[in-house]
Amino acid sequence: MSTLITIVGTVGAVVMLYGYAMVSAGRMSGDGTAFQVLNLAGAVTLMVNSGYHSAWPSAVLNMVWSGIGVFTLGRLVSRRAAARRAAAGPGPADGAAQETAQDTPGDTPGDTVRDTPGDTAREYGREPAPVG
């Protein structure tokens, strides 16, 4: 078992060093998902190795490092999901039918109105076209 734990710890150290080298060389973003995953994987494996060998200061350090990695990855995933939702635009509210924008006869070309009464362009984050 000791040999397996040593191999796990060594792989973790190599993974962390690889991530650090890539960021330092400008080949990977320090605030990107790939770097954060490498850091988390390395910290977890080094935490296991350090705990097994009763190197408690190192184990605690890597436990905190892992916690930071989990928090940061969660924040990155959340931001990415929010950006995807924003790029997709507004969806139907409460399961309502999808609304469509239409040009109305006699209106300015490109000036659209909602086909559902009471909805305005302002509600969807778009200002209506100026009149006149």
TrEMBL record:
Compositional bias (Basic and acidic residues): 112-126
Transmembrane segments: 6-23, 59-77
Segments forming domain CBU-0592-like: 6-80
Keywords assigned by UniProt, alphabetized: Membrane, Transmembrane, Transmembrane helix
Segments of this protein annotated with the region Disordered: 84-132
Positions with biased composition (Low complexity): 84-97
Tree of life domain: Bacteria
InterPro entries, per the entry: CBU_0592-like
Name assigned to this protein: CBU-0592-like domain-containing protein
